[in-house]
Specification:
alpha+beta, two-stranded antiparallel sheet, about 30% helix, 4 strands, globular
Length: about 60
């Protein structure tokens, strides 16, 4: 088991509820994907339909 302190990406991923839930949405097609937020922050955020996916749930984006 790894007993090291969490790295900066893990700290950031746990710092906000929207990141911590580990789910992203496509604004174009409405698709959703489960992600490891720390890995995505480090290696690149997921894309769908040619655009970066969002951590904002569809109901949170309604005016």
């Amino acid at each position: 088991m790894d007993k090291r302190r969490p790295g900066v990406h893990e700290q950031i991923a746990r710092s906000h509820p929207k990141l911590a839930r580990g789910q992203v949405w496509c604004r174009r097609c409405g698709g959703t994907r489960k992600v490891d937020p720390a890995a995505s922050l480090q290696a690149g955020w997921p894309k769908c339909c040619g655009a970066t996916m969002t951590i904002d749930a569809p109901e949170a984006r309604k005016p």
